[in-house]
Design goal:
Elements (H helix, E strand, L loop, with lengths): L20 H13 L3 H6 L1 E9 L2 E5 L1 H9 L3 E17 L2 E14 L2 E16 L2 E11 L11
Parallel strand pairs: 1-6
Antiparallel strand pairs: 1-2, 3-4, 4-5, 5-6
Length: 147
C-alpha cells in the first residue's frame, strides 16, 4: 500500500466544476495529513487495487481505514505536481502526477518524491479510486537504493 494513497479525480465535462484533479487530490491529501482515515477510505472503491514498493493487492474500505488509523507514519506536507488526466469515458478516467511529500516515519523526518497514478470511476453521484499506484522516484533499475 502506498504511504499516501494520494490520488485525484479528473475534471470531466459532465463533472461539477469543483471536481477537479487538483482539488480532489488536495482533499484526499489533506484528509491523510489530518489523520482522517474515514474520508481517505471513503474516496477509495470497495475494494481498491493498490500497488507500490510492497507489492500489489486488493483492499476493502474497512481494512484501508484501519491501515490509515494504525499507520506508523504521518504526512506533514505535500505538493501535487504536473497532473495528467486521461478521460476514458464520462465515468472513468486515468490520473497521474508527481508528488512531493514531507513525512515522519517511525519518528524520523523523511522527504519523498514519487509518481502516482489512479483510475477513478464514477459511482452514483461521486467518484471512487479503483486502483492506485505509487513509484518512488529514482533510478528505474533501483541502483540508487541500498538493500
Amino acid at each position: 500500500m502506498s504511504r499516501t494513497g494520494a490520488s485525484c479525480v479528473p475534471a470531466l465535462p459532465s463533472a461539477p466544476s469543483s471536481l477537479t484533479c487538483t482539488s480532489r487530490g488536495h482533499v484526499e491529501q489533506v484528509s491523510i495529513k489530518n489523520g482522517d482515515a474515514e474520508t481517505t477510505a471513503r474516496l477509495s472503491d470497495d475494494p481498491c487495487v493498490v500497488t507500490g514498493a510492497q507489492g500489489a493487492g486488493k483492499i476493502d474500505r474497512a481494512t484501508l481505514e484501519q491501515m490509515f488509523r494504525k499507520a506508523t507514519w504521518r504526512l506533514k506536507a505535500f505538493e501535487i505536481r504536473a497532473p495528467i488526466v486521461q478521460p476514458i469515458t464520462d465515468d472513468v478516467a486515468v490520473v497521474a502526477y508527481k508528488v512531493h511529500e514531507e513525512l515522519t516515519v517511525d519518528g524520523k523526518a523523511l522527504t519523498l518524491e514519487a509518481s502516482d497514478s489512479s483510475v477513478w470511476v464514477r459511482r452514483g453521484s461521486g467518484w471512487a479510486c479503483a486502483i492506485h499506484t505509487e513509484a518512488v522516484a529514482g533510478d528505474p533499475f533501483g541502483r540508487d537504493r541500498s538493500r
